[in-house]
Amino acid sequence: MKIDVIRPALLPATSAFLAKQHKLLIDGNWVAASSGGTIAVEDPATEEVIATVQAGDRQDIEEAVKAARRAFETGPWPKMKPTDRAKILWRLADLLEQHSDQLAELEAIDVGKPLKKARTDDIPDAIAVFRYFAGAPTRLTGDTIPVSSPGDYHAYTVKEPIGVVGQIIPWNYPITMASWKVAPALAAGCTIILKPSELTPLTALRLAELALEAGVPAGVFNLVTGYGDTAGAALAEHRDVDKIAFTGSTTVGKRIVQASVGNLKRVSLELGGKSPAIIFPDADLDLAIAGTADAIFYNQGQTCTAGSRLFAHSSIYDRVVEGVADAASNLKLGHGLDLKTTLGPLVSRKQRERVQGYFASGREQGAEVVTGGDVAGERGYFVQPTVLAQTNRNMRVVQEEIFGPVVCVQSYEDDELDAIAKFANDTIYGLRASIWTRDLRTAHIMASKIKAGGIGINTHNYAEPAWPFGGYKQSGWGRELGKDALDLYTEVKAVAAKLS
Ligand code: NAD
Asked: Which CATH superfamily groups domain 12-271+476-494?
């Protein structure tokens, strides 16, 4: 399959940012990595190097943690008037908005995602998250406790910032994932060290610049670009880090838990998924087919909540397979910056090889390739959007997270909701599920039976700053977004005073 990879001109501000000498942000200063190492950042659609960033490692993490500790213990941030902290977060959101065209281009060229989506989804979503959490500092209240002997005791709780927080994020939604972590942590009064993915560090660097401009004090927001097994591991192990918030694969999530044992730091994890989308025979099929196709192909399938297991009742199975395959064939592959593109490349050569491995495995284990099933284009990390039919629970493609535009369709005969839920719950993950039906009873009974942190009814990859996000089972620990996110960044202190 040939692809015309047309890379339109960038805004001057984007080109200037790419050409910069990027550094690490430690204690309010931009500094080079102590090892002198650098990382080349690629455009995944053309394989060209577009920027160079620092390869921070253990020594740089050491300095960043020291700065964050100082800022937490003696700096103004945790003690600041809540309205002042709120103002700075709101100002940061305004600055992101002012620079949203540049940010959208950086995100599109770094990840490979369609610019149109970066403009309408990734950047506005990140801005909305900063605005949502700008409302939090003034609402971080504890409780007055109804004591057993009123008059003898007065008891209450206070929510205090947890301290120095390490935040490690993946490459699929770089600025969105940064906003989910940075905004609630700063709102709670914590100080942070953010480590973006080595593959996609660009918007995190721009976010850090804008945070300084918004008035976040030195040492509060530190940024170390670097590899996972050096900078990331050093942060996860560090004994003066009070908490690690991690988003990434389940495999690395388990390493984070092991690394946290030294000082029993708090850990929250947003990990992988293999989310079911279940279409019932009574569903609005046009809506369900378009919605479940988007659930898997959005962001090239590199979405933790992607609807990668599609269940269709046997009476509608053929129509669903045909409809999703048509939707796949209608996607326009190309450079993310090309406004005609609806499916960009995968993020890296390694990711493309991983997806190719699953094409082979699916074929070997007897899946029917209805459409796709191969790489695409002569350069860039493109793969064809792929529909695998006649799949079953014993196949690796059905059990493992592929993280590419590959959907496994399975049919079911059963009309018993218990049996359907059991079928849908049959993986180690529990991040998201969607239920496609016109029947309220089916929708809500299924919502109660599915073991997942998020359920969509006639929608799949829904996200919203106030809607908690996270996973059951091996999809993670804790909930980001919404008021639950503040629990990740606060300790509860209980105070009792004897009055009599
Ligand atoms: P990854 O686990 O390879 O890397 C994630 C981050 O961890 C990167 O910054 C990486 O440098 C760092 N890292 C790697 N090894 C490390 C180590 N030993 N110690 C500390 N840090 C380390 O994941 P990825 O490939 O960047 O992202 C894809 C994965 O992320 C998928 O599994 C996807 O489902 C998951 N994800 C989950 C969510 C969610 O909210 N549940 C959101 C987005 C992505």
From this structure: Aldehyde Dehydrogenase; Chain A, domain 1 (3.40.605.10)
Q: At residue 319, what is the residue type?
A: R
- Alpha-carbon 84 to chain mean position: 28
Q: Which residue type occupies 267? A: V
Residue 160 known to be catalytic: no
Partnered with residue 154 across adjacent β-strands are 497
* Upper half-sphere CA count for residue 285 (Cβ side, 13 Å): 14
Distance in angstroms (rounded) separating the CA atoms of residues 157 and 144 = 7
pLDDT mean across residues, the chain: 97
* Ligand 1 mean position, distance from CA 291 (Å): 26
Closest ligand 1 atom, residue 469 Cα: 40
Dihedral sign, Cα of residue 448, residue 449, residue 453, residue 454? negative
Mutate to test the pocket of ligand 1, among 197, 238, 261, 403 (most ligand atoms within 8 A of CB): 197
Q: Give ligand 1 pocket residues (Cβ under 6 A).
A: 168-172, 195, 197-198, 227-229, 232-233, 236, 247-249, 252, 255-256, 270-273, 304, 401, 403, 431, 471, 476
- Whether this prediction's pTM lies above 0.85 is answered by yes
Tell me: pLDDT of 1 over 90.
no
Ligand 1 atom closest to 403 (CA):
31
The confidence band for 414, taking pLDDT boundaries of 50, 70 and 90, is confident
Domain 276-466, second-level architecture: 3-Layer(aba) Sandwich (3.40)
Spatial separation of the C-alpha atoms in residues 200 and 109, rounded to whole Å? 9
Residue 150 burial (C-beta neighbours within 10 Å; 0-12, 13-18, 19+): exposed
pLDDT confidence of residue 4? 85
| pLDDT bracket for residue 426 (50, 70, 90) | very high
pLDDT digits (tens, 9 = 90+) for 106-145: 999 999 999 999 999 999 999 999 999 999 999 999 999 9
| Residue located nearest, by CA, to atom 22 of ligand 1 | 228
Q: How far is the CA of 228 from the centre of ligand 1 (A)?
A: 9
- List the chain domain ranges: 12-271+476-494, 276-466
Catalytic residue among 105, 107, 237, 304: 304
Give the Å distance between the CA of 246 and the centre of ligand 1.
7
Q: What is the whole-number distance in angstroms between the Cα of residue 112 and the centre of ligand 1?
A: 17
